[in-house]
3-hydroxyisobutyrate dehydrogenase
Amino acid sequence: MKIGFIGLGNMGAPMAANLAKAGHEVFGYDTAEVSVEGVTQVCEASQATIDMDAVITMLPDGRILKSVYEQIVPLGKPGALFLDCSTVDMLSSKSAHQQAAEAGLLSVDAPVSGGMGGAIAGTLTFMVGSSAEAFEQVKPLLDIMGKRVVHCGEGGAGQAAKICNNMLLGISMIGTCEAFALGEKLGLDAERLFEVMSTSSGSCWSVNTYCPVPGVGPSSPADNGYKPGFAAELMLKDLRLSQNAAEQVDASTPMGLNATRIYEKFVEREGLGKDFSAMLLALAASTRGQSND
Ligand code: NAD
């Protein structure tokens, strides 16, 4: 296939490289003029759109996605596949689908989980929102870039699933950090507490796979000075998307709201540029009076 790839950042560059490695002809565009092995670099978004069988976007947010779509959708080849893998708000995602449908294009939202490591290794998880027809067409491309592909429903359903999952992740990481910080103050050894929680009803991904305590559990960013991994500000972005989505549908998400506030404070004070699991340091250093303010 001839594929245009717009947004060659931390995630987009390795994803585009994997498509090229699999034998596709890939044309990449990024405002930052990035060059990617196997990918033909072009100077305009239009050159990554006109005549392409598929156009993939991997952009920072919904505002940028909207402005890029306004530019490229009218240039799409009739019947071409427009695949957005960015994490964006529900309204932007739905409006991207609508624009594409009105122009006679097949559209898919497929945000990812798995981070840069997954993008490089081609082991991402894709959460897909699209018609059945578009899903059938996009599946072979997603199989190259990822190892798990879940068709969550119609347009926007991929973003919805991503937002729900990451809201839960933010909440569970704070809970995990609280439990370890409390355990320490109660005089517990972190290794023993890990042994208990990881095999009991407290077990979850944040404890078992991504333990925030250095030297405990499988290797994680905590063992590397909390270098991301998954940066605290990206977690905050996703938590804000969850609150924005919850407002739109009048859903009650008290823990999601609290997690958003806690990550807001953390990013503002000390968390910027650190992995989101560094929340443990903030909680361990604060007292009951401080954390309740
Ligand atoms: P990034 O900032 O590294 O990359 C975004 C790229 O888009 C940059 O290279 C930037 O120059 C480019 N860009 C910005 N405006 C543009 C425009 N108008 N036209 C063309 N290119 C433009 O971000 P990333 O880490 O690659 O993340 C991309 C998306 O994936 C985000 O929505 C993010 O939330 C999501 N995501 C990231 C991770 C992660 O671990 N990094 C994990 C899951 C999902």
